[in-house]
Write a structure and sequence with these properties.
Strand order of the largest sheet: 1-3-2
Structural class: alpha+beta
Shape: globular
Order of helices and strands: HHEHEEH
Number of helices: 4
Length: 135
């Protein structure tokens, strides 16, 4: 699938996006790799929590402060965060550059918040680097 996607991208180049994602895609590729790894890890974690604790699995709603960025970058970051099983962005506050995220399972709330913060910082940093998305 990846090879076919790359061939189609080369054969049929797309017009520039508002985020300018075609430039300096190396950092974006690294961030997407982290998203993919996090998706696999999250899938295994949520599946194990469902087997181990079932309905008693603890969850939480966590506020994550995103680096200052444009609304478009914040929304793309929220989408990339939401594709991981166990995380759903409940609210996007573009004025304060915050994401309200529902997370499960939660064993240590502060560790979960730090992990989400690192993930969001990495995604937003990559999107800003390739698209110049600072306000």
């Amino acid at each position: 699938g990846i090879v076919v996607g790359l061939l189609l991208t080369v054969a049929f180049p797309q017009p520039p996006t508002p985020l300018g994602l075609g430039r300096r895609a190396g950092r974006l590729s690294v961030a997407l790799w982290h998203v993919a790894v996090d998706t696999v890890r999250s899938t295994l974690t949520v599946a194990w929590a469902a087997v181990r604790t079932g309905p008693a699995t603890r969850s939480a709603v966590v506020t994550v402060q995103a680096p200052v960025c444009t609304s478009e970058v914040l929304v793309v970051a929220a989408i990339l965060l939401s594709i991981s099983p166990g995380t759903v962005v409940v609210e996007i506050d573009t004025a304060r550059s915050e994401l309200l995220v529902h997370v499960l399972p939660v064993h240590d709330l502060e560790r979960t918040r730090r992990g989400l913060q690192t993930h969001v910082d990495r995604i937003v940093g990559a999107l800003r680097a390739v698209g110049g998305g600072a306000r």
